Amino acid sequence: MVAMNPSDIAIIIIVALVLFVGTSKIPELFRSMGRAIGEFKKGRIEAEMEINQMQSQTTPQVNVQQNTQKTLSQEELEKQIKDLQNQLEQLKKQQNSK
């Protein structure tokens, strides 16, 4: 049996397309193949996004349970609030400087 390179197979496919489909139909064929590939990629991305959303919906419930078990003192909470306010002010300054 003769081993064929991928380039040989591609040439045979192109010649067969020209013979059976004709030169005027080849651009339409490749255009429709491109659209099909695009739709496939779009569907795959949407499915991945749905999976990520489902996973992110389950993780906050675990975090909420962990946070309720942990009780913070009033001083710690006030310190966290001040830190967050400082971070917010810094971000606002950065946006205004741009």
From TrEMBL:
Gene3D superfamilies linked: 1.20.5.3310
InterPro entries according to UniProt: TatA/B/E, TatA/E
Annotated compartments: Cell membrane
Coiled coil residues, start to end: 67-97
GO terms of biological process kind: protein transport by the Tat complex
Major localization class: membrane
Membrane topology: Single-pass membrane protein
CC per GO annotation: plasma membrane
Highest taxon, organism lineage: Archaea
Record keywords: Cell membrane, Coiled coil, Membrane, Protein transport, Translocation, Transmembrane, Transmembrane helix, Transport
Name of this chain's protein: Sec-independent protein translocase TatA
Organism this protein belongs to: Metallosphaera cuprina (strain Ar-4)
